[in-house]
C-alpha cells in the first residue's frame, strides 16, 4: 500500500536558511523617519553622526569656586592662600566656566572669609572638576552605526547630540489568519459545543510578536473553504503586512488547505520540520505580484504553533528588520524521569523546574501538542536533540528558562497524589507577602514516595491506606524509604465515596452495589491510593474484583473518574467528594482517609516548606479547605505519628 507521505522534514535552522536565501528583505522592509524619543527598539537604517558636542562648553563638575589653577599653586595646609574677589567665581555643578578660569575647587575645601576673600589649603590642578567641551560627545563623530537596535541609553545619547529624528527600518508587520470551521471567535465569548474550539492561537501570536517588536494583528477566523481562505490570504497580502501567517490546516486532513493556498500565491519552501511539536509547519515566499512577502503556515495545535512562531517566524522577523535575536537564559537541570524521544526529531520538552537540595530538578510535563497549559505550567524547556532516542532519569541537560532564574528559588516542588487542597495551597502561597509558586506533578501517592526518595521534590501528597495495620502512609514509608529521615504532616482528612450520576438514578449506596449486573464501574490505576482503598472495601465485603463490571477500566485522576460518570461511560467510580461536586454529580460516602504531606527532613527548614506549614495552620486556610466540602481539618498542620486513629 502506498503511504500518503506529505511532509519532507528539514532541521529548523535549515528551514530558516532556505527562506533567507530566497526572500529579498531589502525590497520587503523599507525605512522611515521617526522622532528620536520614540525610537527605542527600532533598528537604525543608516549611521548617525553627532550634530552637537556634549558638553557644548567647559562645565563645572562640582559645586564650589572656579579659579585659574596657576594662581593657586602656592596654597599649603600650613600656609592657606587667600583669593581676592575676582580671582574666583562661585559656581554650581553644570555652570559654564567663567572666562579665564580652568579649574573648580569643591565648596567643602573652601573657607569663605567675611571680607569677601576665599581661603584654600591646597592648589588646584588645571581642569580639576571640569567637564571639558566634547568630553562625552564630539560633534561629527559616529554615534550609532547602521543596523543597531536602539536602547534607552542610545536615546539619551542621540538627544544629547542634537539628533531629533532618524531613519530606521520599518517595523515588521504581521497578520495572523485563524482558519477552521470549528474555531470560534473569542470576541463573541462563545460556549463551544462538541467539535468546536475557542480561537486562541492568534492572541498567543500577537502577544509574542509584540514582545519581539513586531506590529501584529489578526483577522476573524476563516472557515475551511478554499475560496474563503484564498480571499483572506490575498487580502492580507495586499495589506501593509510583511508576514502573513495562516493558522492551522497544515497537516494531511481533508480540510487542510494551507499548503495549496500558499502555492496559489507563491512558493512553498518548507513543509515539515524535524521538530516536535511543530512538525507540519510551512514556510514560503509570495510571488512578486503579491509583494514577495513571507508566508508562514502555523500548525493548529497550540504548542506546535508556539514552536513555529518561536523557532521559525521569530528568527526570520528579526533578520528581516536586521536585529540580533537574544536567546533565553539556561540552567543545568537533572531530569526526574526517563523520557524516550523519537530519533530524527528535535523534541521540545516542557519541564517544571525547582531548586531542591542544591540542584535544579526538572520534571517533564505532558507532551501533548494540544495542551497550552503545559506552557503556562512549565518553568523551562529542554531540547532533546534530533539524534537522541531519549534522556535517562538523573541525566543532566540544559533547560531554557521561561521564568527569571530568581523565580526558581521561590518555587516549591510537590510531586504525588493530587488533591484539590493542593490547588488551594497553590493559590494561598501566591498571596503571601513573598509569593511562592507551587510546581506540582500528579503521579499518584507511590510516585510521590519515589520522588521523595530520589530527592526530586520538597514534599509529596500521599494517602496510602494499609489494610493490615489500618494506618496511613507510615507502613509504605517504612517499606519503600527505610533509610530516609522524613516528616509526615496532615493536610486534611477527606471523604472518599462512590461518585454517581446526579439524582443517583441507579440507587447506588455502597460497595455491595458494585456486584450488581446493571452497574458499570470505572476504576483508578494500580498504585493509586484510591485503588488500594477500593480493594480493601471489596475484600471486606467479600466481593471478588472479577464480579465488578468495569474493574479493569482505569483512569488516573478523580476528575477523570467523575467525567466518566458525567458522560455515562460508567455508572459510578470511587473518588473524592470535591470531584463529584465540581461536575454536579451525586456522592455516596464510603470512607474517610488521611491526605498527608511527606517531607524529607532535609527540606523541613527550607523557607518554602516552612511557609506551607505556617499557612496550613491558619484558621483562614482551614475554613477554605472545609468550604470545598468533603474535608475535615481537625488534624491539618499536625505532625503525624504511626498508629494515630482518625479523629
Ligand atoms: N494523519 C496525520 N494527521 C496529523 C499529522 C500527521 O502527520 N498525519 N500531524 C499531526 C500534527 S504533528 C499536528 S501539529 C497537527 C497539525 O494540525 P493542523 O495544522 O492541520 O491543524 P488542524 O488539524 O486544523 O487543527 C489542529 C487542532 O488545533 C486546533 N486549532 C486550530 N486553530 C486554532 C486556533 N486558532 N486556536 C486554538 N486552537 C486551534 C483545532 O481545533 C484542532 O484541535 O496535525 C496532526 N495530524
Ligand atoms: O508537530 Mo505536531 O506539533 O508534533 O503535534
Structural commentary:
With 647 residues, the chain is an alpha+beta fold. It folds into five domains: 12-27 and 172-321, Molybdenum Cofactor Biosythetic Enzyme, Chain A, CATH 3.40.980; 31-51 and 142-169, Molybdopterin biosynthesis moea protein, domain 2; 59-131, Molybdopterin biosynthesis moea protein, domain 3 (Molybdopterin biosynthesis moeA protein, domain 3), CATH 2.170.190; 330-403, Beta-clip (Beta Barrel); 445-632, D-Maltodextrin-Binding Protein, domain 2 (3-Layer(aba) Sandwich). Helices cover 25% and strands 27% of the residues. It contains 17 helices and 39 strands. Strands 31, 34, 35, 36, 37, 38 and 39 form a seven-stranded mixed β-sheet that branches. Strands 16-13-17-21-20-18 form a six-stranded mixed β-sheet, sandwiched between helices. Helix 1 (12-22) packs across helix 7 (302-321), helix 4 (201-211) runs parallel beside helix 7 (302-321) and helix 5 crosses helix 6. The two termini are 67 Å apart. The mean pLDDT is 94. The chain binds ligand LQZAQKY5 and molybdate ion. Molybdate ion is lined by residues 276-280, 299, 301, 304, 369. Molybdate ion binds at residues 276-280, 299, 301, 304, 369.
Level-1 CATH class name of the largest domain: Alpha Beta
Largest sheet: 7 strands, mixed
Helix content: 10-25%
How many individual β-strands?
39
And the CATH topology of the largest domain? D-Maltodextrin-Binding Protein, domain 2
User: Which regions have little confidence, pLDDT < 50, spanning 5+ residues?
Assistant: none
Shape: flat
Beta-strand content estimate: 25-35%
The ligands found in this model are:
ligand LQZAQKY5, molybdate ion
Write down the overall mean pLDDT.
Answer: 94
* Total of helices: 17
CATH superfamily of the largest domain: Periplasmic binding protein-like II
Using the CA coordinates, give the radius of gyration: 35 Å
Going by CATH, the architecture of the largest domain would be 3-Layer(aba) Sandwich
Amino acid at each position: 500500500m502506498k503511504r500518503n507521505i506529505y511532509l519532507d522534514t528539514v532541521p529548523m535552522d535549515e528551514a530558516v536558511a532556505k527562506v533567507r536565501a530566497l526572500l529579498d528583505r531589502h525590497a520587503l522592509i523599507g525605512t522611515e523617519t521617526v522622532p528620536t524619543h520614540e525610537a527605542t527598539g527600532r533598528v537604525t537604517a543608516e549611521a548617525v553622526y553627532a550634530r552637537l558636542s556634549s558638553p557644548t562648553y567647559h562645565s563645572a563638575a562640582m559645586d564650589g569656586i572656579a579659579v585659574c589653577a596657576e594662581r593657586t599653586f602656592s596654597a599649603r595646609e600650613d600656609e592657606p592662600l587667600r583669593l581676592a574677589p575676582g580671582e574666583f567665581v562661585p559656581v554650581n555643578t553644570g555652570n559654564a566656566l567663567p572666562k579665564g578660569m580652568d579649574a573648580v575647587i569643591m565648596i567643602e575645601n573652601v573657607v569663605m572669609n567675611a571680607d569677601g576673600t576665599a581661603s584654600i589649603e591646597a592648589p588646584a590642578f588645571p581642569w580639576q572638576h571640569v567637564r571639558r567641551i566634547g568630553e562625552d560627545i564630539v560633534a561629527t563623530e559616529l554615534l550609532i552605526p547602521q543596523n543597531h537596535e536602539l536602547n534607552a541609553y542610545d536615546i539619551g545619547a542621540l538627544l544629547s547630540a542634537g539628533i531629533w529624528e532618524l531613519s530606521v527600518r520599518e517595523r515588521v508587520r504581521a497578520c495572523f489568519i485563524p482558519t477552521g470551521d470549528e474555531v470560534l471567535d473569542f470576541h463573541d465569548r462563545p460556549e463551544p459545543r462538541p467539535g468546536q474550539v475557542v480561537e486562541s492561537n492568534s492572541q498567543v501570536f500577537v502577544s509574542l510578536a509584540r514582545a519581539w517588536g513586531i506590529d501584529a494583528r489578526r483577522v476573524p477566523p476563516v472557515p475551511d473553504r478554499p475560496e474563503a481562505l484564498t480571499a483572506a490570504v490575498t487580502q492580507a497580502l495586499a495589506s501593509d503586512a510583511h508576514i502573513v501567517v495562516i493558522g492551522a490546516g497544515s497537516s494531511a486532513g481533508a480540510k487542510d488547505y494551507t499548503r495549496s493556498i500558499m502555492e496559489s500565491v507563491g512558493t512553498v519552501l518548507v513543509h515539515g520540520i524535524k521538530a516536535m511539536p511543530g512538525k507540519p509547519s510551512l514556510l514560503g515566499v509570495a510571488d512578486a505580484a503579491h509583494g514577495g512577502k513571507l508566508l508562514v503556515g502555523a500548525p493548529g495545535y497550540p504548542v506546535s504553533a508556539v514552536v513555529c512562531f518561536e523557532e521559525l517566524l521569530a528568527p526570520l522577523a528579526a533578520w528581516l528588520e536586521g536585529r540580533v535575536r537574544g536567546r533565553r537564559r539556561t540552567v543545568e537541570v537533572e531530569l526526574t524521569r526517563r523520557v524516550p524521544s523519537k530519533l530524527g526529531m528535535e523534541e521540545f520538552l516542557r519541564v517544571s523546574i525547582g531548586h531542591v537540595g542544591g540542584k535544579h530538578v526538572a520534571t517533564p510535563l505532558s507532551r501533548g501538542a494540544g495542551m497550552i497549559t503545559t506552557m503556562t505550567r512549565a518553568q523551562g524547556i529542554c531540547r532533546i536533540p534530533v539524534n537522541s532516542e531519549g534522556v535517562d532519569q538523573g541525566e543532566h541537560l540544559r533547560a531554557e528558562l521561561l521564568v527569571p532564574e530568581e523565580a526558581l528559588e521561590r518555587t516549591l516542588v510537590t510531586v504525588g497524589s493530587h488533591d484539590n487542597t493542593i490547588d488551594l495551597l497553590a493559590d494561598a502561597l501566591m498571596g503571601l507577602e513573598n509569593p511562592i509558586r507551587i510546581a506540582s506533578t500528579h503521579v499518584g501517592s507511590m510516585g510521590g514516595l519515589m520522588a521523595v526518595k530520589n530527592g526530586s521534590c520538597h514534599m509529596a501528597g500521599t494517602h496510602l491506606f494499609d489494610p493490615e495495620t489500618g494506618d496511613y502512609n507510615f507502613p509504605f514509608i517504612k517499606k519503600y524509604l527505610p533509610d530516609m529521615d522524613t516528616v509526615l504532616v496532615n493536610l486534611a482528612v477527606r471523604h472518599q465515596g462512590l461518585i454517581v450520576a446526579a439524582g443517583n438514578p441507579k440507587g447506588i449506596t455502597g460497595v455491595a452495589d458494585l456486584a450488581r449486573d446493571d452497574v458499570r464501574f470505572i476504576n483508578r490505576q494500580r498504585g493509586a491510593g484510591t485503588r488500594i482503598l477500593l480493594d480493601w472495601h471489596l475484600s471486606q465485603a467479600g466481593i471478588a474484583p472479577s464480579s465488578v463490571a468495569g474493574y479493569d477500566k482505569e483512569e488516573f485522576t478523580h476528575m477523570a473518574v467523575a467525567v466518566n460518570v458525567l458522560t455515562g461511560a460508567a455508572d459510578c467510580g470511587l473518588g473524592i467528594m470535591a470531584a463529584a461536586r465540581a461536575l454536579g454529580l451525586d456522592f455516596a460516602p464510603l470512607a474517610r482517609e488521611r491526605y498527608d504531606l511527606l517531607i524529607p527532613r532535609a527540606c523541613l527548614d527550607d523557607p518554602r516548606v516552612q511557609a506551607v506549614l505556617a499557612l496550613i495552620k491558619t484558621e483562614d486556610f482551614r475554613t477554605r479547605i472545609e468550604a470545598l466540602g468533603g474535608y475535615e481539618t481537625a488534624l491539618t498542620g499536625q505532625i503525624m505519628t504511626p498508629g494515630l486513629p482518625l479523629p
